[in-house]
Amino acid sequence: MFGFMESDWFTITLEIVFLIFIIYDTKRYFETRKREYLINIVLTIGFFIWAIVPFYNKYLSWNEADQAQLIRQCETREHNSTLCECLEDKIFKAYGQADYEGIDTKHDADYLEFKAQSIKECKGEDDSWF
Questions:
Q1: Overall pTM > 0.90
Q2: Which of 9, 32, 47, 54 could form a cystine bridge with 93, CB 3.0-4.6 A?
Q3: Residues 8-36 as b or e (16 or more Cβ within 10 Å = b)
Q4: What does the pLDDT look like over 58-84, one tens digit per residue?
C-alpha cells in the first residue's frame, strides 16, 4: 500500500520539498527574526538528512561494478531478475558497501533476518498492513 515511499522519485521529491521549506523559513527568519523559524529550519534539516541517508548509501557508497556483480550473483541463484533487483535495492539502501563486505552473509543472524523479510516484501508476501 505504501510501496511508493521506497521509490527513488519519492525520496527526490521529498528532498526538494525539504529544500523549499528550508529556503522559505530562512527567508522568513531574516525578515522577522522570529525564533520559530530557526526551530523550523533545524527540524527540516534533520528530516532532510534522515531522508537522504538511504539515498546516499545506495548511490554514493557502492561502486557500479560491485552493484552489477551482486545482482548477477543473485540472478544465477534465484533466476528471477525482478526479485533480485528489488532485493538488491533494499540491500543498497540498508548497507553501505564497506558494511556489506564486512558481513558474513551466510551466518549473520541480523542479515539473514533482514534478507528473509526483504524477500517477503519483494514477493508481496508480507502480511503487514503497511
A1: no
A2: 54
A3: eeebeebeeebeebbeebeeebeeeeeee
A4: 777 788 888 888 888 888 887 888 888
The Cα angle at residue 75 between residues 69 and 81, in degrees rounded to 5: 110
Q: How many domains in the chain?
A: 2
Domain that holds residue 88: 64-123
15 close to 59: Cβ distance less than 8 angstroms: no
CA pair distance 71, 12, nearest whole angstrom: 24
Query: Where does residue 96 rank: exposed (0-12), middle (13-18), buried (19+ CB within 10 A)?
Result: middle
Determine the Cα–Cα distance for residues 74 and 83; give it in Å rounded to an integer: 9
